[in-house]
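The record is kept unedited without comment:

——
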Amino acid sequence: MRDKRFVAEHRGGPLKKEQHYQLMQWACDCSEHVLHLSGEKIDERLKKALHVAKEWKQGNASVGDARKASVDAHAVARKSSNPTAIAVARSVGHAVATAHMADHSLGASWYALKAVKNAGRSVDTERKWQDEQLPLEIKELVLTARKAKKFCRI
């Protein structure tokens, strides 16, 4: 079941537009921070998805554009056999899907952590970095939601 705190105001939930934008920015930051782990040549669909996410945040892309970009990013994951690259692509897919449902931002974070783990790097260091990127307005929301979701544990 979805955490109702991530439901946008215009859909009857408590999440303010600015918080939604902050979740999008944080999700993109998490994905971009591990993007280099996907390999030497980064698939253009991943770059485009992150661009669409930023455009959505600026009001220059629709939720439909973001959903399509998310599907494209997940297609990159399905095409790969490298567990690290798969996790990076899934992180990007969830980051841009934050436009559609704000709690996808948690997926962007989790898959970024999974990419770091698959690459043999420190998950604790990455989680600390992610937490430091959280604006105060959404920090408690994200941290409490992360604790409540079993999938957020690595």
In short: Residues 35 and 99 are 20 Å apart (CA to CA). The chain has a mean pLDDT of 95. Helices lie at 17-34, 44-57, 63-79, 83-97, 104-118, 123-133, 136-148. The first helix runs from residue 17 to 34.
